[in-house]
Amino acid sequence: MTRNKIAMAAVLAATSLAMGSAAIASSHREAPFVAGLPKVDGTDFYMFRSYEPGREGFVTILANYQPLQDAYGGPNYFTMDPDALYEIHVDNSGDSAEDLTFQFRFTNAYGQANIPSLNVTGGKVPVTGGPAGGVQVPLANIGPGMGAATGALNVTESYTVKLVRGNRRTGSVAAVTAASGGASSFTKPVDNIGSKSIPDYAGYAAGFVQNINVPGCAATGARMFVGQRREGFVVNLGQVFDQVNLNPLGARNSAGNTIGNKNVTTLALELPIACLTNGADPVIGAWTTASKRQARLLNPNPAGPVANGGGRGPSRDGGAWTQVSRLGSPLVNEVVIGITDKDKFNTSEPKNDVANFGAYVLYPTLPVLVNVLFNVPPPATPRNDLLAAFVTGVTATVNGAPFKYTAPTNLTVPGEMLRLNTAIAPAAIGNQNDLGFLGCDLAGFPNGRRPVDDVVDIALTVAEGALTGTNGLQTCNVSGATPMVVNPGAVVNDGARPNPAAYLTAFPYLNTPVPGSP
């Protein structure tokens, strides 16, 4: 049996928590506390072997924040939080603790626009009879752009990235730097204000893809991008949450994508495989978190942002970093974790998942709710197979030989995260199936997650028994010479299907954001 067939059999032997428990929206306002902190709300997390031609030796990781951005959201738009710590964690040793952590910090500067020909300095416009030096304008940009260039920006964002090896708070720290020149501070592109401000936003944003050096790694060719992107997640959100007010076995493209005209902010890394694995095990796990300081003191009389030298900003944050947002596998916190534990999940670490949340996997509630609504029998509980797959990755024995599909060979502590077997080759654009392994595509979810993977339909279908033979749903049969789809089209779905043309075919893969005006 070929390696691909063994891997497919392994997938069919079990599945991940995100699919087994199922869910119906990615992490957009998924927990009570973080719903009030949109700047640190992680929305989606992707990790996959790069499928841009010539980049197959790299892994792309995308962490999205700030959900449901309306493109017209001026004058402030969607700057990142300078008082927050955004992190991407990688476990390559099987202990459900971070071995590598990429830490992103942001600085926002206001009153930056300079137009010498108009005598504009620091965003102040001279006004007849007004004060000397001019009057500060209320806009993020002044003057129209040309082609891929902006007008004079009145708000600028910069960021730094540090790599921590070991514990995220006590490990060794070194800066990620530019491959040319060695700079450790990078500039983030302004959001897509509109076509008059930035006529060629795609060209403008492309100039912010950074070639980087990764400390402690021969990372030739590594890249990074931080900036606004078009929302890549596809879901029929309103009808799904209205007690699944749709035909779940109808056409997969029967409804619209509720959030198709929204934007997100993406932290994107593309790193050589060798920089992420431990050299012995091809399987890695990863997740993203955001943290805030423990204490905040509000200032009733602010005097400008601290970053601009005001010294007395609207608030002062202090104390230890405290995690408030967490995201690994998609769809977990929305409808897997009970409503009273959602904030707890966002503050927890993978190593504690079995004790904290194991019952939610053994006894998933979504199949029970579907039975009430549609009289579809749920698979039998307890779902011990789902618990094992959720916390360990997927392992199977095929023809007497063990094969670990997404399970670390050195697993010592189980925990929830998105796992990727870097030894499995990526599928080329034309060969990708948005149902992942349900469509016999080994390179798709749950082996990592690509933007085109329809995790909602995969999750719903598996939850209702695709892998157990319950309800005659689509799966993949690997018993023959070639893996074959069984029960094609019998896919439990929300009616919203990803369109491959809606994504880029190269890094950072998520498309140009929707502009604030035509």
List keywords for this structure.
518 residues, alpha+beta, eight-stranded antiparallel beta sheet, 11 helices, globular
What does this structure look like?
Strands 3, 4, 9, 10, 12, 16, 17 and 20 form an 8-stranded antiparallel β-sheet that branches. Strands 1-2-15-14-13-11 form a 6-stranded antiparallel β-sheet. The chain has a two-stranded antiparallel sheet with strand order 5-6. It contains 11 helices and 22 strands. By secondary structure, it is an alpha+beta fold. Strand 1 and strand 2 form a beta hairpin. 15% of the residues lie in helices and 26% in strands. The N and C termini lie far apart (54 Å). The chain has one domain (3-499). Helix 8 runs antiparallel to helix 10 (384-392).
Low-confidence stretches: 1-25
Number of helices: 11
Largest sheet: 8 strands, antiparallel
Query: Mean pLDDT, rounded to whole units?
Result: 87
What structural class do the secondary elements suggest?
alpha+beta
Query: How many β strands by DSSP?
Result: 22
Q: State the end-to-end distance.
A: 54 Å
Number of domains: 1
Strand fraction:
25-35%
Radius of gyration: 24 Å
Helix content: 10-25%
Shape: globular
